[in-house]
Q: What sequence folds into this?
């Protein structure tokens, strides 16, 4: 089974216990406006342009068979015309163009994972991230089976948008599940992520009821997810599920360069990094409600 991955990160200490290898699946069924990996959202491979290293030689313009490249560094690629053929990458003398996304068989990805086995002490292992790994479920299951057969600890970072009935048995094979909750109100969820949250909240209930090894996480985005009403709604929801610990993810603006590189500059939120005082305040709010922030 082939799957599409856009990055493999080694020696991560942020995406589960111990030292981990993160496999970033390409493709997502949501489109969050704050997405830290906007290059993950499309399932198709995409050209990434890095304007800072471009010297304007123009070899790519001459080589492009679909005339998708312009001189303008701020709007270099016309993505409606680009077919991701990769010709421009091969002629660029400065390496300013690259392809996001690569197809692997499950065995090939597993070979990448096992390179890091010597570092997987203290429950280290592999984390499936994205994008949304569950959108490539057959590929995910094959890689997961290989990891299980070799006793490698597995975690997934999921947005929770999938059929629980269909995927329950596959999720059972995971050692940990990081499940992101974003906005409680369905209309707000739809406005900022592109989809309704009914399935997600139901899945959160199912995972909790069936005692999966789950950690809920809430991304804190200024004036979007960190409003009093959203946090209070989630506190109430989580208490109803007897959740005693969660994780909070602070907004970063690192993703803005990536938006430039894929022709989506206008989608930047232009927010500063998440304020530490506000983060501490929110941690206290959860603690006051008997929910520990880890
Ligand atoms: S990937 Fe192909 S079609 Fe797209 S800009 Fe490069 S040369 Fe043109
Ligand atoms: S669910 Fe995650 S990967 Fe998908 S768009 Fe939202 S933040 Fe990005």
A:
């Amino acid at each position: 089974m082939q799957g599409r991955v856009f990055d493999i990160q080694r020696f991560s200490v942020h995406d589960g216990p111990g030292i981990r290898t993160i496999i970033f699946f390409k493709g997502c069924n949501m489109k969050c406006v704050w997405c830290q990996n906007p290059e993950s959202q499309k399932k198709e491979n995409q050209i990434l342009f890095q304007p800072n290293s471009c010297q304007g030689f123009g070899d790519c313009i001459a080589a492009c068979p679909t005339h998708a490249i312009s001189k303008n560094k701020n709007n270099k690629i016309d993505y409606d015309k680009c077919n991701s053929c990769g010709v421009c990458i091969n002629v660029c003398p400065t390496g300013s163009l690259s392809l996001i996304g690569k197809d692997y068989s499950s065995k090939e990805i597993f070979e990448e994972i096992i390179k890091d086995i010597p570092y997987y002490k203290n429950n280290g292992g592999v984390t499936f991230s994205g994008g949304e790994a569950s959108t490539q479920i057959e590929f995910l299951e094959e890689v997961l089976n290989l990891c299980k057969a070799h006793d490698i600890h597995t975690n997934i970072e999921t947005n929770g948008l999938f059929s629980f009935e269909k995927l329950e048995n596959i999720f059972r094979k995971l050692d940990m599940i990081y499940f992101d909750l974003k906005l409680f109100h369905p209309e707000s969820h739809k406005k900022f992520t592109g989809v309704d949250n009914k399935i997600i909240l139901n899945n959160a209930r199912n995972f909790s009821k069936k005692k999966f090894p789950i950690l809920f996480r809430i991304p804190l985005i200024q004036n979007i997810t960190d409003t009093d009403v959203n946090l209070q709604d989630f506190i109430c929801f989580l208490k109803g599920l007897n959740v005693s610990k969660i994780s909070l993810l602070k907004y970063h603006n690192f993703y803005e360069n990536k938006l430039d590189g894929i022709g989506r500059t206008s989608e930047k939120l232009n927010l500063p990094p998440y304020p530490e005082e506000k983060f501490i305040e929110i941690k206290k709010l959860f603690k006051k409600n008997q929910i520990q922030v880890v």
User: Anything to note?
Assistant: Residues 180 and 221 are 13 Å apart (CA to CA). The pocket of iron/sulfur cluster (ligand 2) is lined by residues 28, 30-32, 35, 37, 40-41, 130-132, 159 (CB under 6 Å). The first helix runs from residue 59 to 63. The mean pLDDT is 96.
